[in-house]
Amino acid sequence: MWLIVATMISAGPVAAQDLGGVTNMTRSPGHGTQVEYVAEGGKTYLWYPGNTNILKGQWKLEDGNMCFAYGPNSYNPVTKQRGGWECEPVRAYQGGIAKQVSGDPMGLAGRRAVPFDLTGQSISLDQILAMVINPGPPAIGGDFSCEGVIANAERSKSDMSIAAGTYFSGMFMGKRCVDVDYARAFALAEKSGTGVDGYLKVLRERAATGNPRAESALRRLGYELTAD
Fold first, then answer.
1. CA pair distance 189, 146, nearest whole angstrom
2. Which residue among 144, 156, 159, 179 is least enclosed by CB atoms within 10 Å?
3. What is the rounded distance in angstroms from the CA atom of residue 186 to the CA atom of residue 220?
4. pTM (two decimals)
């Protein structure tokens, strides 16, 4: 995962434990939108545009550089390198992260196939999370637009699933669609049969970072701020 980076962030040494255990979304002209779970302990799971499977690799912090390797058969279409380690300054790597969430809420480490093709997608990480947590197309003949998803939110279980994700993020296909409504999202997710576990996990991840809106939503919905 190699990025065109413009911003640098806080000075000072960075430890390996500060870089692992997170899911990052990045965008660059060369690679497009990528999502990657950088696990603690040096493993990584890359969801790359055009790939049908999650690309498993390794990462390490070495001499102030963030380094990745994805196996001998991997190919970087920007640098033209096949296999081996590629590195960049850790500050540049961090500066290229468009959005980050803790943990692996999309379960990339346990997937073989990618949830969907990221090629040409310019959507937020929240929208990607919503689509992955509750996948499924709308009913046959449905209006696959923001207005259609909201109007047909309770027409079928698959429509409920899509509408739940839309209410949870407020976005549909990368564009603002509706005011975020966690209660509506949870109700639709329950009725769709897919359940709220995925959404609950994301809300708790956000609450753990001190997000007041997530904390308030959990309390209103009757959930504890943590799972234990």
1. 17
2. 179
3. 12
4. 0.57
For residues 215, 125, 132, 76, the Cα torsion angle rounded to the nearest 10 degrees is -140
Residues 6+ apart with CB under 8 A from 171: 123, 124, 126, 127, 130, 177
Distance CA 97, CA 165 (A): 23
What is the reported pLDDT for 2? 31
Element (H, E) at 69: strand 65-69
Q: What is the pLDDT of residues 187-218, one digit of tens each?
A: 988 887 777 877 787 788 888 888 898 899 99
* Residue whose C-alpha is closest to residue 180's, from 141, 211, 142: 211
Tell the residue number behind the tokens 């540049």, with chain if given.
Answer: 92
Q: Is the dihedral of CA 161, 50, 85, 63 positive or negative?
A: negative
Q: Which two tokens stand for residue 92?
A: 């540049």
Q: Which two tokens stand for residue 59?
A: 């990462």
Residue 195 CA to residue 205 CA, distance in Å, equals 18
CA–CA separation, 80 and 73 (whole Å): 12
Single-letter amino acid code for the residue at 138: P
Q: Is 194 helix (H, G, I), strand (E, B) or coil?
A: coil
CA angle 25, 3, 30 (to 5 degrees): 100
